[in-house]
Specification:
Elements: H1 13-21, E1 40-44, E2 47-50, E3 55-58, H2 61-64, H3 73-83, H4 97-109, E4 114-120, H5 123-140, E5 148-152, H6 161-165, H7 170-173, E6 184-186, H8 200-218, E7 222-227, E8 231-232, E9 238-239, H9 243-255, E10 258-262, E11 286-289, E12 301-306, H10 307-313, H11 332-348, H12 350-364, H13 366-369, E13 374-380, E14 383-388, H14 395-405, E15 408-409, E16 416-419, H15 427-443
Parallel strand pairs: 3-15, 5-6, 5-7, 7-10, 10-11
Antiparallel strand pairs: 1-2, 2-3, 4-12, 8-9, 11-12, 13-14, 14-16
Helix pairs in contact: 3-11, 4-11, 8-9, 12-15
Length: 444
């Protein structure tokens, strides 16, 4: 299709309008001359429907955000109720019931003593907040040399300049390198990099030893270590043993370095526990949450931190405060959506039900994991991933297009295919997902 001459395009008017006015994220727009946009007009449960009435099983949770399905009646009702009260009020000098209740409930369910909530609108903004807050803390504490950050090889933390500085994904980072702060990326604990015969746990311990070696030399200038707990998302759903989190906490404590846990993608049950940090009985200094926080409904993120950090900023001087703001911080509608999400968790036995569904999917996927084109089939909670052994050019796009023909929304990361479906997926829908994926592998 041609977006410069829509009169001769084969795209629908709906698609043409979008191509002429909307600059889509993470997209080479010229690619849509070959791969048309999918015009979605409604959603229900795990399904998305296009303008022609075709349904697609949302196997990736609409970029990892959707936990309980599209147009979920309980979340819908909460937002509608809030609309008749207050949609938004600035959180500087004002407050409201939804943001208070959400903060109280997050404090109650998050690990350890995380009791102070600072809100924003998206994951990258949460990363920025945690980085700035850590840096500022050390400045106020008189350790002004602690200005650097450490992250893991292959980590992804967002694409604003601060978050991109601690990201290690070349396709996002290379172009903007002159704008970014330096960051050290230490050895990843992702077990795909283990030596032959080396267990995931032993490899994670070896990676932790590399972290300790670095901080032993550089702790005086290091403000914080930031990590994606258990699963490194954007670089192909790399998974690692929770012993790394346990050791990272001990090492950071030893060398007086903050630990930032970026659970933007994996919080709220994705790894099988409410938070990934729970699997190591570990409390970070900063916990970043977004995506599933509002069930995929409205932009909302939050950074939770300890009273130790909070008290460092508590002072008579305004200059001593954490002077950071977002216009829609603590938006009332988004907070009500998040409260509805927490209600579903509390009343729906979600984590136990997810374990049953994960077992069903793993059993159903035996043929998929044994497929001759599949490597490193892996699972953690409600996330599955595998690599495809292929030399097909534009593999991700072609797999995506083939998936649509099987009624599946799948968007591989390079040659990594992954599943992150809404938790409400049924056994029948799981069968459709597995069988459709097998068909794509056999025919692509």
């Amino acid at each position: 299709m041609s977006i410069t001459n829509p009169a001769t395009s084969t795209a629908s008017p709906f698609q043409q309008r979008s191509l002429q006015t909307v600059w889509h994220p993470c997209t080479q727009m010229k690619a849509h001359e070959t791969f048309p946009l999918v015009p979605i007009v409604r959603g229900e449960g795990v399904w998305l429907y296009d303008a022609d009435g075709n349904g697609y099983l949302d196997a990736i949770g609409s970029w990892w955000v959707n936990l309980f399905g599209h147009t979920n009646p309980k979340i819908n009702a909460a937002i509608k109720d809030q609309l008749d009260k207050i949609e938004h009020v600035m959180l500087a000098g004002f407050t409201h019931e939804p943001v208070i209740e959400l903060s109280e409930r997050l404090k109650a369910i998050t690990p350890g003593n995380l009791g102070h909530c600072f809100y924003a609108s998206d994951g990258a903004s949460a990363t920025e907040i945690a980085l700035k807050m850590s840096f500022h803390y050390w400045q106020l504490a008189g350790k002004t040399g602690k200005t650097q950050f450490v992250s893991l090889q292959n980590d992804y933390h967002g694409e604003t300049l601060g978050s991109l500085s601690v990201t290690d994904v070349a396709i996002f980072k290379k172009t903007y390198a002159p704008l970014l702060r330096p960051c050290t990326h230490v050895m990843t604990p992702d077990w795909r990099y283990a030596n032959e015969g080396e267990t995931a746990e032993n490899y994670a311990l070896r990676a932790a030893a590399a972290l300790e070696e670095h901080l032993a030399k550089h702790h005086a200038e290091t403000a914080a270590l930031i990590i994606e707990p258990l699963i490194q998302g954007a670089m192909g759903m790399g998974m690692y043993h929770p012993v790394y989190l346990e050791r990272a906490r001990e090492i950071c404590d030893q060398y007086q370095v903050h630990l930032i846990a970026d659970e933007i993608a994996v919080g709220f049950g994705r790894t099988g526990t409410m938070f990934a940090c729970n699997q190591a009985n570990m409390t970070p200094d900063f916990l970043c949450l977004a995506k599933g926080l509002s069930g995929g409904y409205l932009p909302l993120s939050v950074v939770l931190t300890t009273d130790t950090v909070y008290q460092q900023f508590y002072d008579d001087s305004s200059a001593h405060a954490f002077l950071h703001s977002h216009t829609h911080t603590g938006n009332a509608l988004a907070c009500r959506a998040a409260l509805a999400v927490l209600d579903i968790f509390e009343r729906g036995n979600v984590l136990e039900t997810n374990r049953t569904k994960a077992k069903y999917l793993n059993d159903a996927a035996v043929a998929l994991s044994a497929h001759p084109k599949v490597r490193d089939f892996r699972n953690c909670g409600m996330i599955w991933a595998f690599e495809v052994d292929t030399e097909i050019e534009q593999f991700s796009q072609k797999f995506f297009q083939a998936g649509l023909k099987q009624k599946l929304l799948l968007r591989p990361l390079g040659k990594t295919v992954y599943f992150m479906p809404p938790y409400i997926i049924t056994e029948e829908e799981i069968d459709l997902l597995i069988n459709g994926t097998l068909h794509i592998l056999d025919t692509l």
